[in-house]
Amino acid sequence: MFTEDGGPNHGEVVELYGTEGTGKTELLYHLLCRCVLPVASGGLEVDVVFVDTDYSLDMLRLVSILDSRLNAACSTGMSCSGSDEAALRSCLSRLLVVHCSSSSQLVLTLHFLETSLSSRPGLALLLIDSISAFYWLDRCEGGASIAKQEEKLSKCAELLGRLLRDYRITVFATCHTIRRSYTGPSSSSSDDRPYLCRPWQRLVTHRLLCSRQEAANNMASTAGGSEEQRRQRVFTVHCTSSSSRTKAYRSSSFYVSDGGVKFI
What pTM, to 2 d.p., does this model score? Predict the structure, then answer.
């Protein structure tokens, strides 16, 4: 999914950018499960904070993916100790979920994380779904002043920068595409331009542009389709990395199954 230079290092930020329904949240679930699973089951066994600003976190979906990964590890002989329920409880004990309904709550949450990180040294990953949730609300409350519109997100970026510097955590955040202009011909490249405040843009070291590509032979795909139908929904991720001196690019594809993300 990432460039040949490798994935994000400690203290770096990854932005998953795209329209609704392009697999951004599923990728977060994939990363979350990889982190909270025990080492014996192919995971990293570290703590994760999931900040849900869209109130879209599906715990049943998450548990389903974890259960599928644990069963797969058991079937291959990697790890099969204890009951399924105990293994799931152990995985979920490494997850801290926080819900935010405004930029002010997000700022307070990041303040709170400083205390959590100092008391939980195993906390290595912060997931935010999504960082752009309050963009329009902040613009409305900020009036005609650009500085007022961006004040809270800039504060969030400042706090995140401190967390990255002091605790070397890795941050993944989704960001919704917006249509910046309704005049002139539609251009996907203009819609893909970063639009959040510059302090946030300066933090981002890897940008994953997510899109959805229907298979050519997929004649009728429905939301409640079968596993075979879901396999036809191919998602593409274009990664741009600026963590090194020169920019690097890479594209990859995946589909979503009952067991989570499957890369092609």
Answer: 0.86
